[in-house]
Amino acid sequence: MLKKKYRNIFIGGFIFALSTIGMVYYKEKLEQASSGIYEVYFNVFRSLFFITLLFLVLEWVIEKWKEIKALRNDKVNAELLHLKNQVSPHFFFNTLNTLYGLIKKDQTRAQEFVIKLSDLMRYSIYGSDHGQVPISKEIDYIDNFLDLNRMRYHKDINLVFQQEVENMDIVIHPLLLIILVENAFKHGVEKLVDNSYVYIDLKSTSTTLSFRVENNYEEGNVEKENGVGLTNLAKRLEILYPDRHSLKVEENNNIFYTSLELQL
């Protein structure tokens, strides 16, 4: 059986050819002898000719639009996959080093560490394959991330994760929020000897999401330009939430602020 688009083109082409022949035939008849019935037939075939021509042009335009849309979607999906594959390499590398140390010193903690790390990696690799996920899964991911970091560092860290979410079932694109949290640890907690903190605040309604991360850092140790994580985040937001997001990065008196606003 012919595919639908080829069947439509075949039928349209046949009618177009038939209407062309009929229009030419009755045009000649009218030139030879004026007749009301010839004029009716000529007008019928002429109308059929233009209707079929319009149909074939529209069919061609629609098929071309579908091809362009498919190519655009493939390009966007490839770009998103490339960006997602760059998420968290710094964190996972350092976490594996921590795990190696724990295996030698404390096997019980090492087992707990492995479970949390496997949950984190499972979500990064498989759970985020879906276009969108419930906000509750992103919160669980961040909680796991924070727990692992509490186990990683041999120093006191003031970690606060405040949540004000109206509906845990609202959906967002995965692995967006975690980048701001990772950035706070990479450029703040990791380089401070003591008195480090990370304050995270998440607010969400059915239509909006606000995510803010604040951390302190040691002067001279913060990069003046956005790192790979924030650059990737900005690119993903342009693809996933065009004209529906706001990403701000500020620093003042050794305090680093990042905030993300989404229109869901």
Class from secondary-structure proportions? alpha+beta
Order of helices and strands: HHHHEHEEHEEHEE
Percent range for β-strand residues: 15-25%
Number of strands: 7
Radius of gyration over all CA atoms, rounded: 31 Å
Structurally, how many domains make up the residues?
Answer: 2
Mean pLDDT: 82
N/C terminus separation:
43 Å
Q: Using the alpha-carbon principal axes, give the shape.
A: elongated
- The second-level CATH architecture of the largest domain is 2-Layer Sandwich
What's the story with the biggest beta sheet?
Answer: 5 strands, mixed
Question: Treating each run of at least 4 consecutive H or I residues as one helix, how many helices?
Answer: 7
Q: What percentage of residues falls in helices of 4 or more residues?
A: 55-70%
Task: Give the low-pLDDT segments.
Answer: none
Strand order of the largest sheet: 2-4-5-7-6
CATH superfamily descriptor of the largest domain: Histidine kinase-like ATPase, C-terminal domain
Q: Which CATH C-level class of the largest domain is it? A: Alpha Beta
Q: Which topology of the largest domain does CATH recognise? A: Heat Shock Protein 90
Explain this structure to me?
It contains seven helices and seven strands; from the N terminus they run H-H-H-H-E-H-E-E-H-E-E-H-E-E. The two termini are about 45 Å apart. It has helices spanning about 5-30, 35-85, 90-105, 105-125, 135-150, 175-185, 230-240; strands spanning about 135, 155-165, 170, 195-205, 210-215, 245-250, 255-264. Helix 2 (about 35-85) runs antiparallel to helix 7. The strands form two sheets. The chain has a five-stranded mixed beta sheet with strand order 2-4-5-7-6, with helices on one face. The chain is elongated and about 105 Å long. The protein has about 260 residues and is α+β, with helices and mostly antiparallel strands. The protein has two domains: about 5-85; about 90-264, Histidine kinase-like ATPase, C-terminal domain (Heat Shock Protein 90, 2-Layer Sandwich). The model has no long low-confidence stretch (mean pLDDT about 80).
